[in-house]
């Protein structure tokens, strides 16, 4: 028996066999969603409303529906389709189950994630039937989201820049595992749409450590766009001001998401001003200060039930990921190792195979020191 994330059901099918997305008829999706009834809406974004539905085979789905078909919606649709055809199956990445190109609408069909988004489980929780996320669940979410993002960033020759990581694009399945979704702004990095990075040392490091299988460091590849995607405080400064981005913009957004995960609040710039930037600017990044501030910053819904050391470590990692200088931010494979060591107490020599791709050659990093030394004055 295999739990299939595509159909969100148990089946005897081989989970590594990626079924190509199916072409649904509009009628099938109308029937599944009770004619797109308002009561079935589970969320929405720039593409359109998202409806809960049940297909004729009994499986639960989320149907993303655009009823205005403009250039932007067409691009969003194509991007989600492209990601679906490029990304290999991973438990922490949402897989496209199907699509529908009707005359006046565009629809995307995904397996339904029962617990909706991370955003809807933090702060003003929409669903009060489940309790607040406990610390252990938050740790699993942090690690799962990191693994999903690392998978997008490095799976063989394909690197996918998500560009829209935030608590709304991290969904939670029945076991509260993080599943990355929302690929409408994603970019598939390849030689045609990137310029080679300029940080020579890092390229050399990468080549030297990788016995020739990877001739460049994908985190140095730059994608130039004339449109800035993303949500307010989750947009990395270098991207916001230049329109140029590398995979490090996703690391920045991941760091911001971690801050929301521990504080339980829509932190935006406020959190960093209060905790991150404020401390960095004041030169007060020593562990003692973080410890002192921690209690006032951690989500009160946790009712103090969290190991302080772990919370402190998570905040330090978040601050490192959100550093203004992208070269200081770690790569996602390094983030996974820091999380595994800090949160699971895992020996790096017995690292989980789930967190490593074949091409992963990054040396082990211990949990980061405070980013103060590299911070702007
Ligand atoms: N598979 C799913 N299962 C459950 N809820 C979902 C699913 N997909 C989307 N949602 C809900 O819809 C919201 C918007 O989804 P998504 O981010 O994919 O849409 P979008 O149009 O790409 O959004 P954005 O405007 O942020 O780009 C999510 O935050 C979540 O609440």
Automatic annotation (TrEMBL):
The record's listing under Gene3D superfamilies reads: Phosphorylase Kinase, domain 1, Transferase(Phosphotransferase) domain 1
Give a GO molecular function annotation for the protein: ATP binding
According to the lineage, what is the superkingdom? Eukaryota
Q: Where is this region: Disordered?
A: 343-377
Pfam families from the xrefs? Pkinase
Keyword flag Zinc-finger: no
Q: Which residues form the Protein kinase domain?
A: 36-344
Q: Which UniProt keywords apply?
A: ATP-binding, Kinase, Nucleotide-binding, Transferase
Q: Which positions bind ATP?
A: 64
Per its UniProt record, what InterPro entries does this chain match?
CR_Ser/Thr_kinase (IPR052059), Kinase-like_dom_sf (IPR011009), Prot_kinase_dom (IPR000719), Protein_kinase_ATP_BS (IPR017441)
Q: Which PANTHER family match?
A: CYSTEINE-RICH RECEPTOR-LIKE PROTEIN KINASE 3
Q: Know the name of this protein?
A: Protein kinase domain-containing protein
